[in-house]
Design a protein that fits this description.
globular; four-stranded antiparallel sheet; 419 residues; alpha/beta; eight-stranded mixed sheet
């Protein structure tokens, strides 16, 4: 009998998956956690990702917990769900979004997804075709690049302008687009920049998309998480100018990212996406994909309808407090510069001045040494498209954030170039 170890087998691993994972937020964060000093007995300070659910101050609304319990207890949602999502959930999501729109969505405009990440996967996959390209923001959320590579959709990056509050460089968008461009992505409120776009700027984005004959994918997973002087304006408001695919979830606003429930919504009163068969393609994709747990879908109407305004106010006020704390304390670290104070989401981008540091090669090196020496996790900007920047989350317990920022200051003092 032939020894199995000596046989030449016909299969091997897809090495592209390893390289794609390495440049995602999760891939880089996992590597940073692996680099922690096991002998450091201090608590790890997680300033690298937007999941504050572990902190007592950010616990979700009791209404949301009760909704899950009621859904399970009803025994109505132990079944398979329709691939587009159960009707009560789709109707509730449409009603929730309609509060901010000048026209009404119907349940047929809503597709329930496994968090916002599946919504990203669906939207890019249905737009991919040979030779097609999509315009993505830089800095941005690298999951878009990973999915585009997987679907063989060419990526072209337009810059966000820090000197203009991280607005879209619309001149660059027009220069990048051609007849094979299918759409552009905006993230508002911004990940990773903490920006919140004005009504006027979003209207210009829509007008640019109409001029180019492309759609807008509006990633609004941080929708309504705003605490500056700019209110949240959904891109769907401009759906009559250019068709919009809106992506969202309850993960961030309700602080439950592990529940994995989101949505993809067509905001297109002119019916362009239905005429072009994009909506049919979304349904077809979901027919061959997984769908979120039915009992969580069953809880959505109660969650969206019954959560009190004071819960949202408390979370936004807490984010305002921690954003101010983070921005102010970073001013005391000479090697770090924040171009703007965040107005929304859970992050800010800050620029590294490597000329003030010794023994630090770049942002990746900074973050790996910070993890090993101070047990603080921050995300290197190269992961998001900006080399020698950092993304820092302020969505942590205020006392924990203060400790983490003090450790970053100590790290700077240790590595500061001698005058």
């Amino acid at each position: 009998m032939e020894n199995g170890s000596s046989k030449n087998w016909n299969f091997h691993a897809n090495e592209g998956l390893s390289s794609a994972s390495a440049v995602t937020v999760r891939g880089v964060l996992n590597a940073l956690y692996d680099n922690l000093n096991g002998e450091d007995e201090r608590a790890v300070i997680p300033l690298g990702h937007g999941d504050p659910s572990a902190f007592p101050s950010f616990r979700t609304a009791s209404v949301a917990q009760d909704a899950i319990f009621d859904s399970l207890s009803s025994a109505k949602y132990n079944c398979y769900a329709p691939t587009v999502g159960i009707l009560p959930a789709r109707r509730a999501i449409a009603d929730y979004l309609n509060h901010d729109l000048p026209y009404d969505l119907s349940p047929d405009d809503v597709f329930v997804t496994i968090g916002c990440t599946q919504a990203i996967e669906v939207s890019l996959t249905v737009l991919s075709r040979p030779g097609a390209n999509i315009l993505l923001p830089r800095p941005g959320f690298p999951y878009y690049e990973a999915i585009a590579a997987h679907t063989r959709l060419e990526v072209r990056h337009f810059d966000l302008l820090p000197e203009n509050g991280w607005e879209v460089d619309l001149d660059a968008v027009e220069a990048l687009a051609d007849v094979n461009t299918v759409g552009l992505v905006i993230i508002n409120p911004g990940n990773p920049c903490g920006n919140v776009y004005s009504y006027e700027h979003l209207k210009k984005v829509a007008e640019t998309a109409r001029k180019l004959g492309i759609l807008v994918i509006a990633d609004e997973v941080y929708g309504h998480l705003t605490f500056g002087n700019s209110p949240f304006v959904p891109m769907g408001v401009f759906g009559s100018i250019a068709p919009v695919i809106t992506l969202g979830s309850i993960s961030k606003r309700w602080i439950v990212p592990g529940w994995r429930i989101g949505w993809l919504v067509i905001t297109d009163p002119n019916g362009i996406l239905r005429k072009s068969k994009v909506v049919d393609s979304i349904s077809s994709f979901l027919n061959i994909s997984s769908d979120p747990a039915t009992f969580i879908q069953g809880a959505i109407p109660q969650i969206l309808t019954n959560t009190k305004k004071d819960f949202f106010s408390r979370i936004n006020n807490l984010l305002r407090e921690t954003a101010d704390l983070c921005y102010d304390k970073l001013q005391d670290i000479p090697c770090i510069t924040c171009p703007t104070k965040p107005k929304g989401s859970m992050f800010l981008m800050t620029k590294l001045n490597l000329s003030l540091l010794e023994g630090i090669e770049d942002d990746m090196d900074f973050c790996f040494k910070l993890a090993k020496e101070e047990s603080v996790i921050a995300l290197p900007g190269i992961t998001l498209g900006l080399k020698n920047w950092l993304r820092i989350t302020f969505a942590v317990e205020p006392s924990t954030l203060e400790v983490g920022l003090d450790r970053i200051k100590a790290f700077y003092d240790r590595h500061a170039k001698k005058q």
